[in-house]
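Q: Sequence in, structure out?
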Amino acid sequence: MIRRIYNRMDIAKYLSTKYLSAWLILLIDTVISMMMSLASFLIISKLSTHHFFSMRLGVVLAVVSALCSVGAFLVFKTFLDVIRHSTLRVIGKIGGAAVLKECLVLLCVSLLPYGFPGGPALKMSCLLDFLTTLISLVVLRLAMIVIYDLIKGRSAQRGSRKRVLVYGTDDKAIALTIRLHSSPHYEIVGLLTHGRKFKRYMIADRPVYYFETRENLPYLVDRLDLDAVLFPTPGGVQEERERLVQFCTEANVKVLIAPPIGEASDGRVMKQSIREIRIEDLLGRPEIKISLKEIRANFRGKTVMVTGAAGSIGSELCRQIASFDVERLILFDNAETPMHHIRLELEERFPALKFIPVVGDVRVLPRLDFAFRTYHPQIVFHAAAYKHVPLMEENPCEAIMANVVGSRNVADKCLEYAAEKMIMISTDKAVNPTNIMGASKRLAEIYVQSLGQAIAAGKIEGHTKYITTRFGNVLGSNGSVIPRFREQIAKGGPVTVTHPDITRFFMTIPEACRLVMEAATLSSGNEIFVFDMGESVKIADLARRMIELAGFHVGEEVAIVYTGLRPGEKLYEEVLANSEDTKPTSHEKIRIARVREYDYMTARSAMDRLGERARLVDVPGSVQLMKEVVPEFKSQNSKFEQYDKQQA
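A: Exactly. Output:
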């Protein structure tokens, strides 16, 4: 414990406020002065033809020199100066004290009886004694200043460098250790593994430490003055999320993740590239493999348009599409500031890319027509939508205008301007919808799929393929639960959860977009693709883990408060990719949904009526028609449940 306190002490701050005792300095100066007197007399004696030095004479000289030195130092007060702040004036005071000392020594020598052995040699050694005393005392102070600066510099550097253990002994862990060898920000004190297999090994000139139980980590923290555990890859975090990551959280040790080697600058890891673990790293899954070669071939040389390009999904789609050698990328969104931000990012990351930001709204048909007429996109990703369940439950007509009418406008323009493909981003909430948002997305699916089937059947002239992709919640999207929890934790809580048992499926934004790209490549048209979302996560557990990762104790420092289900909110989301309701594809994470098919003319007529009612802000009429077209739409915890009772 003492070692840990000592190691964690800010030495630089301590040294800046603490000084050596003046009486200690007086003692040191006196000893040095006395030793110089003895050394000077011994040298003169050795150089003389008669050797006068004896033990008796040495004792006398030592006593005389010590007394004279103390007197001189007291007169000039050299011991009261703070050495680290010494100036030339201090050297002058030391010189004066040395002169006074020699005068006092000569005075004492002159009082010795005539013929005292060594008397002449004592007088002759005074000049040498003066020089050696002056030089010794000045050198002592210079040495102490240098040592102080070194200690302060090293402690300051230690304060800015995190002492970390790199997790693992594989090639990536070793490569990271080597890359950080001379890092000014991180000091690699060793490698860390589970189990004793590599106990007492040295790898990359660093010792290998091990852990087996949660008690091992506090021991390593004390022994190594440990600040953090650094994972070379997110995969390691996944493997250790229920073990080492948990142990680190309990021991208040930071968990860091290094960037891929391609993100390092000149082979070195930058401080800003290494980041602390986020909840997304724990909820995410091993990276999904996609056929990049086929996807790149599918997009190369094409003009691609993304609606909702400034949103969470849309912006990530733009980033990924930008790396596929497209001819042009059209960004379509009505949010000016987010559009400005994604534009600046793409300009910086992809300077050779030709992209055009278009500020527009999918609900405004003339503006949408301008974009299609001007740029003739060949592939269109439709990500523009309203997505927040409670907000859309309160504004159903706006949900219809954006999600249904807007999607229809995009689909119609794709047909009119002969786009090759339209890929619509839908949601798991469209499965047996219980809220306005989910029902509006299901209606958009119905129109898009029926239009594609009508084209395939030859009922409508055209060759555009319509593809729909469904997935659940994406981690960290704008306005989602994770950013909200982060804000609440930063404010000290409480963290609000609607229900203790509520669960959700989660997927990272890049993962979702990769699967969208893969589905767009796999599709022959008119399918609704659903993604394997993995295991559902209890939101209360998610909140608890985020609080712990932030370094707080649940209930003590940050509380969790349950507020009740919101209008239209489900307790459990539907499982998308089960074998009963889907068909497999060549990709294990992507399946094709078996859904009710609609006749295009019937769907078109329903959309016409729905659009008219929404424009008139006829809320009852709009919601009732939604339930008529989508009979599986049953409201939950909503005022619109009354229409379900009327239909029953």
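The two ends are 71 Å apart (CA to CA).
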